[in-house]
Amino acid sequence: MKRFAPLCLLIALALSIAVPLAVAAAASATPPAARSDRSPAAPFATALSTVTGIAISPLLGTGGYGFYQWATAKDAAAREALPWYAQWTFWLPALLLVGVCAAKDSLGTVVPPGLKKPLDILETVENKFSGLIAAGAVVPFAMTSLTRMFFEGAGVAGAGGPVLVPSGVAAIHIAAVDLTWLLNLLTVPFGLAVFVLVWLASHAINVLILLSPWGAIDAGLKAARSALLGLVTLAATINPWIGAVLSLVVIVVAYFVAGWAFRLTVFGSVFCWDFITRRRRRFAPQENDNLMFAGAGCPGVPVRTCGRLVQRTAGGLEFVYHPWLLLPARAAKIPVEPKDLAVGEGLIFSDIVTGQGRTLFSLPPRYRGHEAVLARAYLLGGGVKPAGLRKAWGALREMLGGRALPDSPAPA
């Protein structure tokens, strides 16, 4: 059964990617009168679903949105007038890249973590860049199109919205003053705020994939995110208001996990930067005040909070951090004595752990190979010990008759 697991995961991911595109194609074949909601607020509902869907998966969302606009264009001239992301030179490579990432996650169940992690890092960086592109170009364009429809009664809302006619405020001309800029001033920041909230929560999935040692978990996380995008697209196609309600649920959930997602995003950014630039080759830990991230065992500090571990002259350790990286500094006193701590040396990154094995701090990849120096700097009594996959590999070697991985001696 295990032999077919990668194939099954690949098929599931391919279907979750194809569903939004198939729904968009079916929607384009439906007569506008049969699927139009002519209420004045319908474009807002459709635009909300569009922005939410793109934020869930920027590359897939932007590529699928561009493909839909390209497929529903009336003729070649209309296609040439479409924005750059609706040209086949963008959406075709984008969707192909999404397919390659899906195959990578599916086959990751049989690929060793050491070979898959570089690809996960590249995908995490790609998600950051595609998020910036979507936030800077696609989302403002979608919200500006909404404004034009509201005032001029021309165009299509997002995924197959109705052609509007001017009514109410839109039909009032005050001394021939064009007020579209005012509505743009309100809708574009709103759209960007929604995008950032949802993108943060979605990008956290990429970081979780980056930290996960098991390919099956990676594929499951990716399939769940793609399925959510398909569900939002399908709901918006059936009825703009169903799509809007589902999008609001996604936005509310993203709001409540924004802090956790932001901390994961910062951790993932530092992780990728250290790995790509091979920072550890030109890095040396300081004698004090080193950058690290709070673990689950750090009391009073949210997990993955970025800060610096400081050893006070009066004795004891403190973790100094800035909430959201910008707010005033806070300090958390570490109740564990340095002599009761050790550095757990992992395969990709290491941790500072207590004697009971609880993770107190996670170290960026730049510390790989410098664990003994860090242990001496903070006078950690447990020295350096294998941890995580490295510990499991040492146990396997010992079981098969080889030598177990040695522990570094504790500092004097």
Structure write-up:
By secondary structure, the protein is α+β, with helices and mostly antiparallel strands. It has 2 domains: 2-271, no CATH class; 285-399, PH-domain like. It has helices at residues 5-29, 32-35, 42-56, 58-71, 76-80, 88-107, 113-152, 180-211, 215-238, 240-256, 258-277, 371-377, 388-399, and strands at residues 290-294, 306-311, 317-321, 330-334, 341-345, 351-354, 359-362, 384-386. An 8-stranded mixed sheet has the order 4-3-2-1-7-6-5-8.
What's the layout of helices and strands?
Layout: H1 5-29, H2 32-35, H3 42-56, H4 58-71, H5 76-80, H6 88-107, H7 113-152, H8 180-211, H9 215-238, H10 240-256, H11 258-277, E1 290-294, E2 306-311, E3 317-321, E4 330-334, E5 341-345, E6 351-354, E7 359-362, H12 371-377, E8 384-386, H13 388-399
Helix pairs in contact: 1-4, 1-6, 1-9, 3-4, 3-7, 3-8, 3-9, 3-10, 4-6, 6-9, 7-8, 7-11, 8-9, 8-10, 8-11, 9-10
